[in-house]
Design goal:
The structure is a single chain. This protein is of the alpha+beta class. Helix content is about 30%, strand content about 25%.
């Protein structure tokens, strides 16, 4: 029997965290190519350190003659991302940092396994396992610790960018330890918040006075009590931040990007990858299916696993676990999800409309638990498959 009373902790990082700066640039590069060619193949990686950003990886275009033309836009894209995040430090400034673009054409050997050919359906862009998860702990059907850890940083970023809190700077991390009783989240036992700030004279107490009202605003009423421990900028001064303080790299925050450790992760990062890469698209599909299972009332908690082989179109396996909360058998859900959605790479992209420039917005504050956008962003957060699932079991 699973435990009903416990404390579970998840962390988030802000858009100004060095790794997230890199995720943002990689996804903005992806969006730029998809804007020009919806079926572009992109695997972009970014590295950032003091006064320097390096972008590398592979790009495949139908019209290869246009590749050089598109490459000329990469530096401007990177600078725009850094400016929007808010970096204007002496040793990491959007206008003066050195940008190196090492992107090149996609390997023909990879392309041959992915491209559709006569008599052969388009295959997966790589082998791998992908997980999706949903739980009724929050209205967004996300685990509460990661959902509210994201919410804290998103609210602080808003206050920083609109000028309400001019001494806050872009780099920040949050961590919430959530207390569960009878399997439900009921409060926070500790709050950890480290945020970059403008002035070395600002103390930890000064920073707590700034951030505490916003934290109380976003957490559910009654979750903070006198017993809650606060750790705000516990090491003291945090003025040197971002890639000047610590190097960043695309794809190093995969648990932050997904479920905060409350569910399995297949291991593949998302950012910078076009939707032929099942690391990304199948993880979105698995979340979509798990969320619709819970939204349909078939379970209160659900994990979906999908597995693929490079060059093979259909998933090798589909696995469901509802942790004993299912109203129907897990095996029946496995059969149902295969009936209601085409889980080939092409089927996923078409069902969720993934060949659009919708990815830069996913690079911070989580790929899941976000509201679907009118232009198709976060389409995997819709619950429009619930009725079909109910009919299929």
């Amino acid at each position: 029997m699973s435990r009903k009373s416990y404390i579970f902790t998840s962390e988030s990082v802000s858009e100004g965290h060095p790794d997230k700066v890199c995720d943002r640039i990689s996804d903005a590069v992806l969006d730029a190519f998809l804007s020009e060619e919806p079926h572009a193949r992109v695997a972009a990686e970014t590295f950032a350190t003091t006064n320097r950003v390096v972008i590398g990886g592979e790009v495949g275009l139908t019209d290869k003659a246009k590749l050089d033309e598109y490459m000329g836009r990469i530096e401007s894209i990177a600078r725009t991302c850094i400016k929007d995040i808010g970096y204007e430090q002496d040793k990491f400034h959007h206008a003066t940092c050195e940008i190196t673009n090492l992107l090149h054409s996609q390997s023909a050997h990879i392309a041959q396994g992915v491209d559709s050919r006569e008599g052969k359906e388009e295959g997966a862009g790589d082998q791998g396992i992908m997980f999706g998860f949903a739980t009724d702990e929050t209205p967004e059907l996300m685990p509460a610790p990661i959902h509210y850890a994201h919410a804290v940083l998103r609210r602080l970023a808003q206050a920083r960018k609109d000028g309400t809190e001019p001494t806050l700077r872009p780099d920040a991390k949050s961590q919430l330890s959530v207390r569960y009783e009878d399997g439900k989240p009921v409060g926070v036992s500790s709050i950890v918040l480290s945020t970059q700030h403008a002035d070395e004279s600002q103390t930890s107490d000064d920073i707590r006075a700034i951030v505490e009202p916003y934290i109380r605003e976003v957490l559910p009423e009654g979750w903070i009590s006198e017993a809650t421990e606060w750790w705000v900028n516990p090491t003291g001064v945090f003025v040197i931040g971002g890639p000047d303080g610590d190097a960043g790299l695309t794809g190093r925050k995969i648990i932050v990007d997904t479920y905060g450790g409350a569910a399995p992760h297949g291991g593949g990062a998302f950012s910078g990858k076009d939707p032929t890469k099942v690391d990304r698209s199948a993880a979105y599909a698995a979340r979509y299916l798990a969320k619709n299972v819970v939204a349909a009332g078939m379970a209160t908690k659900c994990t979906i696993q999908l597995s693929y082989a490079i060059g093979v179109s259909k998933p090798l396996s589909i696995y469901c676990d509802t942790f004993g909360t299912g109203e129907v058998d897990d095996a029946a859900i496995e059969r149902a999800v295969a009936r209601v959605m085409d889980l080939t790479p092409r089927g996923i992209r078409e069902h969720l409309q993934l060949n659009k420039p919708i990815y830069a917005r996913t690079a911070a504050y989580g790929h899941f638990g976000r509201a679907p956008d009118e232009d198709g962003g976060f389409s995997w957060e819709r619950t429009d498959l619930a009725a079909a699932l109910q009919s299929a079991v």
